[in-house]
C-alpha cells in the first residue's frame, strides 16, 4: 500500500502576477522551490486564503530571488495579485516511510523571501 502524504509547502506567499493568456501552471521563485523541495513540473495544490479557491497545477521555475508567484492560464481566474496562497506538494510513500517523513514548511515575508523553515505544524498555530 502507498499513502499520499504532505511533503512540503510554501505558506502564505503573495501572488505577484496572474496571466490568463499563458498555457497553464504556476511560476514559483527558484529559491522558494529549492527550499520547499519542489521540482519543475511537479504537481501542486494551490489554496487561496482570500477566496477559498483550491486548484491543482504544475510548477514552472521562476527567476531566483525574484519573489515571483504567477498563476497562469485558467488558474489566473481564481487569484488576483496580492492574494495570499499556500502552495502544497504531496508524495507517495510506504507506511514505513510515512512514519519518518518530515515535511518542509517554508515561511516567507511580504516580499516572498524565505524567513523560516519548519518540519511540523501544531494545532492552533497561526502566522
Automatic annotation (TrEMBL):
Names of required cofactors: pyruvate
The entry's keywords: Autocatalytic cleavage, Cytoplasm, Decarboxylase, Lyase, Pantothenate biosynthesis, Pyruvate, Schiff base, Zymogen
Organism: Thermotalea metallivorans
Pfam families, A to Z: Asp_decarbox
UniProt cross-references to InterPro entries, sorted A to Z: Asp_de-COase-like_dom_sf, Asp_decarbox
Compartment(s): Cytoplasm
Name by which UniProt lists this protein: Aspartate 1-decarboxylase
CDD domains with a match to the protein in the record: Asp_decarbox
Post-translational modification: Is synthesized initially as an inactive proenzyme, which is activated by self-cleavage at a specific serine bond to produce a beta-subunit with a hydroxyl group at its C-terminus and an alpha-subunit with a pyruvoyl group at its N-terminus.
Classification via Gene3D superfamilies: 2.40.40.20
GO annotation, cellular component aspect: cytosol
Amino acid at each position: 500500500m502507498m499513502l499520499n502524504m504532505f511533503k512540503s509547502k510554501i505558506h502564505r506567499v503573495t501572488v505577484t502576477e496572474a496571466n490568463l493568456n499563458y498555457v497553464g501552471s504556476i511560476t514559483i521563485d527558484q529559491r522558494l522551490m529549492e527550499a520547499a523541495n519542489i521540482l519543475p513540473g511537479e504537481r501542486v495544490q494551490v489554496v487561496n486564503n482570500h477566496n477559498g479557491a483550491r486548484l491543482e497545477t504544475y510548477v514552472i521555475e521562476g527567476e531566483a530571488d525574484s519573489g515571483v508567484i504567477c498563476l497562469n492560464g485558467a488558474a489566473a481566474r481564481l487569484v488576483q495579485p496580492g492574494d495570499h496562497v499556500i502552495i502544497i506538494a504531496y508524495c507517495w510513500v510506504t507506511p514505513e516511510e510515512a512514519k519518518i517523513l518530515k515535511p518542509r514548511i517554508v515561511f516567507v515575508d511580504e516580499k516572498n523571501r524565505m524567513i523560516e523553515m519548519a518540519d511540523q505544524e501544531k494545532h492552533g498555530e497561526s502566522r
